[in-house]
Batch of 4 targets.
Target 1
Amino acid sequence: MVYSFLRPLFFALDPEHAHHLSINALKLLQTSQRRPTPAFSHQRLAQDLWGLRFPNPVGLAAGYDKNAVVPLVWSTLGFGFAELGTITAQAQPGNPKPRIFRLAQDRALINRLGFNNDGARAIAQRLPSLLSPQSSRPIPLGFNIGKSKITPLSDAVADYLESCKKLLPFTDYLVVNVSSPNTPALRKLQEAERLGRLLEALLASMRQFAETEHTSSKPLLVKIAPDLDTAAIEEIAQLALSVGVSGLIATNTTVERSGLRAGSPETGGLSGHPLATRARAVLRTAYRAVEGRLPIIGVGGIFSAEEAYERICAGASLVQIYTGLIYEGPFLAQRIVRGLVRIVEREGLPHLRDVVGRDV
Ligand SMILES: Cc1cc2nc3c(=O)[nH]c(=O)nc-3n(C[C@H](O)[C@H](O)[C@H](O)COP(=O)(O)O)c2cc1C
């Protein structure tokens, strides 16, 4: 309600400027809190996955808090988990501005930010003063890592390993981003041979870390593009199962432009409403390919509890949102969670997890 008055003000600003303002507001909120707000939990929505407790299934998608500066506000806004980053080994400024565009008629965004971030080392140095110990976090926090732009594809493994080593002590789960359209050639890392090498190296490094810490290895997830064909999705799914990845995230932004009401000449990744159909289809294909043996996080064009529920029925154990926040406001996660509770009660479901993949 309040956001419907504020949105025109935000939309009068350049999208990246509006984003920085929102991050500054969230920083104020974070410093004003003596301790993180307890999670917005519901017994029919909460679930344990990968040894982590997810109080509800609605998460923040990667890209909003790229530098992990407000990791503790997301539970206050009702999220059940949050993914921070993408973070690269090298600090980098990203692409020239302007690089985020609103397509208001389509309830969509195009971005070509290009992994602007402070780099894994600087971010890891800041984290101890920001983050409470893992055991007392109200919601799981994942870190999403990508390849530095200056690193050639042939050295990608070492680049990802560096970010992994820096961030692993702080993360509850790690995401390999091989699907952003805004780092040249990054999506080639989705090819089975390259991806296999990358995942095996990361998993080995994560196992080594776990041994030295006398803990179990943390979950590793792969985030995939919506622009893959069925064969490529199936190949990644098989690879994920065979190397021992913990889950998939479907999907990142698309380079497709079909279905837009208003065309856009801008290059970059398209997110929001026009992505929903494709993201749902990729999720279904991936769910079928892993035969329900790996949890999948569904993301792309989720603006409502109905769409989140549909995504869960299409195979998602958890969902994430980004563009919906821009159009619907900061309390969208809470609204989706409340809506999911209503749907579960209406359908007489003992638990939301009972419908994961029901429609596949
Ligand atoms: C401005 C912007 C920046 C993004 N940055 C990242 C990123 O750094 N890493 C990543 O994995 N995904 C990134 N994404 C993709 C989102 O995490 C998500 O996969 C995608 O936007 C689809 O979800 P949505 O339709 O709810 O936005 C970004 C999306 C937007 C709109």
Note: The two ends are 36 Å apart (CA to CA).
Target 2
Amino acid sequence: MKKMLITGASGYLGSVLVKHFSSKYKLIKLSYKNKIKGHLIIDLTDEEQVSKFAKSCNPDYILHAAGKKAKFCEENPEISLVNFHSSELITKYFPSALTYYISSDFVFDGFKGNFKETDTPNPSTIYGITKLKGEKSFNLKKHCIIRTSGLFDTNEKGFMNYVISQLSQGKKVEAFTNIYNTPTYLPYFCNYLEAMIRLNLTGLFHVCGNEKVSRFEFSKLIAKIFGYDRNLIVGKMAPKSFLSPIDSSLDNSKIRGLLNLNWPNLKTALEDMYKNSLNNTKV
Ligand SMILES: NC(=O)c1ccc[n+]([C@@H]2O[C@H](COP(=O)([O-])OP(=O)(O)OC[C@H]3O[C@@H](n4cnc5c(N)ncnc54)[C@H](OP(=O)(O)O)[C@@H]3O)[C@@H](O)[C@H]2O)c1
């Protein structure tokens, strides 16, 4: 069995990757502050720790999902260096592993939307700047950068969770009408990533949902599929200070053209998620 190192294994994305790949690869799971049984604790910004660890471990693949989120980066710019310093250390100390670096739609300024891999990044947030800097560590002939956008599934603690929690209590949801992205259902993301790894794909790819929606439109769709009152969704404009590009939607046609793998639409994704949430409550 090939060896796969997952960074950020205690995080939202990392924990889903661990579940998805645990039967397919021999996993080495790295976390940082969260102490989880079976995970190794390493600060990926500490060169001594990374170099020492690299001597004991020779993975075939690295899924690099450690990082800091947008709000944290804005409030703690000095600590947000994990988004790029970790990438520099990984390429330096694991030169023979094929690394998949999870990057973000926030590398774009968000003025035009439907960004392709050929569009020039121009980040407007500290998070976006640090993610782009992280990308620069990777030689695209040897490694792979995956930009994604608005990951969601039943365990999500962000926007999706807020919408469902409010609606289920009959409370209103305030959702921005002018902030757009391409929401990405995690099970589909994992299937794509698995297919990419099977092909040892290197290069730059946008791996995300097919449809660009505003947060308002997305909330309406969630309410519809989950059977909640759609009138509880109230549209409003994001303030200028809002920490997100206006339209960071990504175009996924490059990877969809390469893989012979269906990526169902947002409605189907939400229906699947709803079905899973019913099954989980029955257990
Ligand atoms: N969530 C999304 O919608 C989304 C969209 C686009 C791109 N991404 C990218 O996907 C990646 C994962 O996002 P996420 O939502 O899963 O974030 P998350 O839940 O905040 O998880 C971040 C992970 O990084 C680890 N980490 C933080 N600082 C570290 C350090 N100094 N050394 C080692 N590990 C460290 C954390 O470990 P501890 O918790 O143990 O401290 C945690 O496991 C990020 O790089 C993000 O840019 C996410």
Note: The mean pLDDT is 95.
Target 3
Amino acid sequence: MEWNVIGHEWAARLLQQHIANGEARHAYLFTGPAGIGRRTLALRFAQALNCTQPPAPGLPCGACRACQQIERQQHTDLAVVQAERVGGDLKIDAVRELQRSLSLAPYESRYRIALLPRFHEANANAQNALLKTLEEAPGHVILLLTADSAEDLLPTITSRCEVMRLRPQPLVTVAGALQAHWGAPPDEARMLAHFSAGCLGTAVLKGKRTDREALRENLHDAYRTWLSFWRDVMLRSAGAQAALVNIDVEERVQAAAVQTGLETARRQAAALEKGLARLNSANLQLLTETLLLDWPRVG
Ligand SMILES: [Zn+2]
């Protein structure tokens, strides 16, 4: 399997070297927009750290029990601590409980690993509590944080982490990878790539299955997500004060509302509704072509 993190090969190489040279740090922070692959990279690193049959120093095999359990986030020496929902609040109690478990020796692996996705959702108390762990972590502990950006965290946290800044990939790279690794036909690949550059890269990259049906499901998710996005744009264009569904991308909604206006947003939502209804029966290629041709320009 190796790392299989499309576009972030530089980061994978660096992490691999850290392990191979016995220079793994106590804490890493993976930053970048949601859906870019920061959690995937962190999990690969966790696999590489605890793999029982590495094909080369610092490489995860992907097949041993440890690699498979870490992939499912169900490994005894992997603790995953995050807010209950996206956009939620990670509280100090969760961090304290984590600290207690980290003080114990690993059950069966070399390292006890804590994964803290979306750590920008930790409130100040929780961040301060983690600081203590960052300063005094036992040698068998490695902390893996992810966040939208390093600037969202307390500087005292960031300065104690090795920061890996992940950047969005060009559309053509994403489309190429979808064709090569997921067997997506060119037009679907282009469409999914287009979506991934928006606010839901997750829909594309979470698809580990290679069959066409998985792609269709991803497309389904993508349509639904974009539909809720454009409905929010309609709300804002109309000046309604109702709460947005996509509160996590409120600025994006606002920008689209200003740039496109109510009529365009309404037309776009209607096109997506129609597309969603026809997704199971229609010619996907034709459907996506039409949708992309009319996609409102939002800069
Ligand atoms: Zn392995």
Note: The first strand starts at residue 27 and ends at 31.
Target 4
Amino acid sequence: MQHFTRADIDNLHKYERIQLINSCPGFKSANLIGTISANGNENCAIFSSVIHMGSNPPMIGYLTRPARVERNTFTNIKETGFYTINAITKSMIEAAHQSSAKYPADVSEFEAVGLKSQYRDCCPAPFVAESPISMALKLVESHHIQANDTILIVGEITDLFINEDILRDDKSLNLQEADIVTIGGVDAYHSAELIQRFEHATL
Ligand SMILES: Cc1cc2nc3c(=O)[nH]c(=O)nc-3n(C[C@H](O)[C@H](O)[C@H](O)COP(=O)(O)O)c2cc1C
């Protein structure tokens, strides 16, 4: 076992610290957030911090990094109140990763990285057409985390679009069948393999 004290962590090179600390929480969800600005510039960026926050009402959160840097995704969400979250599949990983590059606000990442934006009546924000799982959300709350100047964005799901092939009778999704990937650290994309499903645990 290699022991890293807090002093060791603080003394690491910035990129080594990013790799180490991002890898420790294990595999993370892989999603593209689609938004549009008030003046019509569409945006798409990858996020690994999307989390389930509750099913009734259906709520999803994600964390955006320091507020002092311009964040097109969050700016657009504040302007319109709406966004989409779209799962990333194996065939999308190159484009999805490239969406993390710092494109100017007036450049559409959809066009820049080669993904197709899709508009639906229920939501002003663009969906990622290639994705088999897409959620439309409306902004509910945002919380500034003072300790590291990050923001937790909380949204309520208004509409869901699921590829029928992966929707099981019990309404769980066959994520493996859909080739949904998972993220390790900040740059590693993995396939996931089902080990086993269980009954609801009781005493
Ligand atoms: C694998 C991966 C996961 C990422 N996850 C997040 C995240 O959870 N939160 C965040 O603020 N940025 C995250 N980023 C960085 C954003 O994708 C990047 O800052 C992007 O340019 C944001 O776009 P925007 O300025 O259009 O909002 C991630 C990047 C990669 C490569």
Note: The longest helix spans residues 14-23.
